[in-house]
Amino acid sequence: TISTTFLQQFEVISDYFQPHGPIVFFQGTENADFVCAEKLAAPAWAKELGALLIVLEHRYFGISTPFGLNYSEASTWPVEMLKPLTLDNVLLDGVTVTDWAKRHYPGAQDSKVIYVSGSYGGTLSTLARVRYPVTFFGSVASSPLTTGLISDPNAPNVYAWGDWAHEVYNDYSFEASTKIKAAMSTLRAQISKGRNLNNIISSRTFNLCTIPKTQADADTVVYQLMAAYIQNLQDNQPAYGFPFQTLMNATLALPANASYLDVLNVTIQAFSPRSGLPCFDWDQHFAAGGPYQYLQCIYLPQVNGYTSNSSIWGLISPYLFLDPSKGDKSLLDPWCRQAFNISSVQGGSEYQKSLGLDQQTLQSTSRLILTGGLLDPVTAAGTPPWYPGQHSIEDSRVYLYSGGAHTTDVIAETPLDPDGVKEARMAILNTLKAWLLSTDV
């Protein structure tokens, strides 16, 4: 008999809690390893607020898996066993654990709960405030995806993610970006001329795990190279050694006669140590997915890094992997069909509205702050800022900050953090204080 209940891992820090103080609830996301509180900015906020801090592991990740399943990054589970993985169930997990804490900790029975998370978790944080406003007094949504929940390859913002990254690279160093653009253009030209891909790709400098054999394979190499440039930008944090600045500085340091392969290899060298692989695995696009891919297929269609022709990578078409002859309509259909034999949910503005993630709903939802780092291309998939026009400190708003990569504002502070990131954390803390002290109705 398979049990219909499962254990869910969580952490509570009560050291700073003052009776009737708030609860800061951090929802974990799609991580194999539990995100301990000391890795987050939340303990510093809890100390300032006299708050109880709770970190909850996301169901179906780490050890919080039902049906006796064992999680790994390459989990491939039957769809039937994934059906309890719904957005409502994930949000209700947060309701359940915070309700438990109010009963368990003396003085917490009337505590106001602040929901915090980032990336996909930022989307959850937004939904929690929209859907459960009685349970969750306020939300901090770091790097959430809202306008990026699209599936139509012809959507007007389908290139936003990649083009934002293009602008960041240009802004940091036009000289380095020009080298990257020339190198990518040369690679495309070599491929289009039918040159021997073994000679181009298998050189010791340009270390791919496998050799492309077709033009479609070669196009995928270009796509994955662009994805590596974007990943190095998103991960530009002290824990990773600031890979974006590292690769840009290394690109600038190349001699004038450096080959285009030398230029492109810089980002692979920055990316591969974090991938844990001895070479660049470009041919993993349609690998069968686990629980997060299931969430994307069923609820959260997520546009990837496609770019327009004027970008430093050249055109990366959203039609690169779609096969209309197989009935593909969604950008995620090839993934979802191979992994789960299902089609992706059709995202777009109407779907965003049905979830409660449209701008009108978010503007009218109180005590919600949506943040985004200006280095982070995911910011282009978030909610565009609006003119505050504040009548109350509790009005929702979008806060964009300089120097920030992906979700850096909710990560624990380090001495190497850019000033803009430190200021963002302080702004969030001051916003929470204002909410908790406000007498506005």
TrEMBL record:
Going by the entry's taxonomy, the superkingdom of the source organism is recorded as Eukaryota
Annotated GO biological processes are:
proteolysis
Q: What's a Pfam family this protein contains?
A: Peptidase_S28
**Gene3D superfamilies in alphabetical order:** alpha/beta hydrolase, Serine carboxypeptidase S28, SKS domain
What is the scientific name of the source organism?
Lepidopterella palustris CBS 459.81
Q: What is this protein called?
A: Peptidase S28
User: Keywords on this record?
Assistant: Glycoprotein, Hydrolase, Protease, Signal
Lineage of this protein's species? Eukaryota, Fungi, Dikarya, Ascomycota, Pezizomycotina
Reply yes or no: does the keyword Signal apply: yes
